[in-house]
Every structure is written in structure tokens, then in C-alpha cells.
Amino acid sequence: MFGMKKKTRLNVQQFDDYLTDGIADAKYDFEKAKLSQDAMLESDADVRYILAQTALQKQKYFFLLRAARQRNVTAKFHQAFIHPEM
User: Fold this and answer.
1) What's the total number of domains in the chain?
2) Confidence check: pLDDT of 2 > 90
3) 56 alpha-carbon distance from chain centroid
4) Is position 82 within any domain?
5) DSSP 17-55
6) Tens digits of residue pLDDT in 67-86
7) Which of 7, 41, 63, 82 is the most exposed place for a label (fewest CB within 10 A)?
């Protein structure tokens, strides 16, 4: 209708793959935020902002984990813990 295209739906496996990729990215961001928090708390930066950013990354990570648990998604999450810059 009016030139709008019908959206294609993801199949279950594609969605689960996107979810596991998102979990890996969120885990990496959360770990990076924790390391940054420790380093930045020693500087003159605003402590509340630093703690809020770390808490935000933590909540994103746990939200995705809960979604995966509800969908009974299993994946090899050990790859998410690799940190190339360390």
C-alpha cells in the first residue's frame, strides 16, 4: 500500500544468532566499562557519570542474557570473553 514494502521476518535461527552476537558485544562492553571505571575513578572525572555508564552496560548485558534464557538459546559464549586489547 502506497509503495511500502512488506517487512521480511527473521527466522528463529537468525534471531538467535543476532541475540548471541548481541550478548557477546554487550559482555565485551560491560567488561571494558568495568576496566575503564577502575581507571577513571582515580582521575578528576565525575564519579556518578562513570558509575552510571558501567551500570548501563551491565543492565544491557543482563537484559540480553534474560532474553536468551527465556528463548532457551544455547551458544558458545566462551568466545565473548576474548579481549584483543589486553
Assistant:
1) 1
2) no
3) 10
4) no
5) HHHHHHHHHHHHHHHHHHHHHHHHTTTTS-HHHHHHHHH
6) 999 998 877 655 545 554 54
7) 7
